[in-house]
Each structure stands twice: as C-alpha cells, then as structure tokens.
Amino acid sequence: MTSDASWRLFRGDGVSRGIDDLPPAPPWRRFGDRPRSGSSAAPYLISPGHADVVNAALHLRRPLLVTGQPGTGKSSLARAVAHELRLGEVLHWPVNSRSTVSEALYRYDAVGRLRETTLSRDRGREEPPIGTFVRLGPLGTALVPRPRPRVLLVDELDKGDVDLPNDLLTVFEEGEYEIPELSRLPEDQSLVDVLSADADTEVTVTRGRVRCDEFPVVVITSNGERDFPPAFLRRCVRLDLPAPGSERLREIVAAHLGEAATADVEDLLDDFLRRRQRSELATDQLLNAVFLRIGGVDLDADGLLEAVLHRLGGTI
Predict the structure, then answer these.
(1) Comparing C-alpha atoms, which of 144, 109, 145 is closest to residue 130?
(2) Domains in the chain, ordered, with CATH?
(3) pLDDT tens-digit readout, 125-151
(4) For residue 100, how far is the Cα from the chain centroid?
C-alpha cells in the first residue's frame, strides 16, 4: 500500500508541523475518558469454558490464578470482571522481587509521624492523628469490610520472592490482618480513620484489625517463570489462557477498532501468526499494527513492522 506521508509528525530534520496535528490515540491508549480501573468500552473476549472457570472462582470465593504468555489478556481479565460486575476500580498490586505482603497490606510512616509530632509540640499545636500516617495498600484495601467485594489484581506473582505465595495464602485464608500500631492504642482511640489505596478516601479501622465481610475478587497473574507451592495452588482456581487463534484475533481487532478494520489486515494477521510461532508476541502488538495500517501507514517501510511486532523474549 502507499504510505500517507502526513502521518509523520517527527521528521528528524528540525522542521515539524507541531503536535496539534496528532490524530486521536488508539482506543486502548486513551486515558482522559475512561475510568481509572483501565476498563474500556471494548468487550473482553473469552471462551464460554474459560468464563465458567472465572465464575467458579467467584462462587467459591477463591483467588483466580491466571497463567499464559505475555499479551494473552491476563491483567485485562481483572478489569473486565470489575467492569462487567460493576465492582468499581481495580485495586492493582504489581509484584516485583522486593514486594512483601506487609507493604501490600499497609504502610506506617513512623518517621513522618515523629517529625510532625515534634513540630506540633514545638509550635504549641495539636498533634496530628496517627491515622494520618497509615495508608492501606491494595491488598489491605481489598479486605476492608463492605457489602460488595472489590477486585484485586495481583500482577505477575511469579516475579516475587519465593516465600511470597505462602505469606499471601495466610492472609487469604483468614480474610483479615492486624495493624499493630493501631491495636496498641488506648480504648478511647479504638476507632481510627486511615487512608486507603483509593485516592483521597479514608476508611475506619476498629481496634487495629481489618476483616472483610465479602472476600474480594482476587485475580493473580503469572507468566510461568516459576512454580508455586502445592498448598497455594490447592487454594486457587486455575485458568490458563491460550494465545488466541486467527479467528479470535479477528474478533479482537473488530471489538477494538471496528468491523471495517478487519477488511485489509490478512497479511498483517498472517505475519503476526508466523512470527508468534518463532517467539512470543502479544495481541496488542497486532492491534498496534492494524491501527497504524488503517491510519495510512506503510508498515513495510524502513523496518517499521519489525519495530511494532518485535519479539518479547531475549535481549534487544
């Protein structure tokens, strides 16, 4: 196809038409007009069998452990559940090698409290309440008692410490946790308002203990980088998301970019499937390529397709 040169905003020659000519972003990269949970108007496409596994986890009040290659929609599943069941924003806990369950539950700023208390005494002001220095993390906020559960996304648990799954299991089995800094307070301070993981939202903690009424909808993702302990796996409902085939990919393109977008993408689809057989590719890479194609971009020019459909594994 012939490339529309007008798509080039940056030319590398010091001359540009300016950012005002930038066209609208792809639907999945628009942030101002969508909820903070990251959900969008496009439906989440999932087979009936896989949807049944999700429903089993909902009924059993068990964590859903979702595995699969990068880009198969593991994290998006949590947002789709929250959106479809109208459970509000997703509480997101991105796990890394330094993650701990205690920090996911809450953080206590002891240094900040000491500083502010000292300043208040020096200036003759009332000391700030201790709750000002306690903020619940995503896991801690998910366990706050409420009539409707929240959705908690524990993202890439396999990147965490080897003991993290067992530490997490204890909290999930008990459905509660303690904040010692609050439980040690005198009786007249049994009710403390603390900050939550939701922006500018406080919750009341009684006697330093938080216990859920309804177990949260927990979606745990893993790229399969290592195995989990049998005790942890036994208490999860497991769902393995396969890489979508050609027909499902067409449906995904149509859902995000409209049915008309599937009319001239057979070569892109074939190239994507061929490359995916050799190395890992994510579905959103195909969506990026189709979006550029329908915008008039010649993806064969100067290795642009290679840049968009680059392999995910190995070094760059």
Answers:
(1) 109
(2) 5-33+244-308 (no CATH), 48-240 (3.40.50.300)
(3) 777 889 899 999 999 999 999 999 999
(4) 17
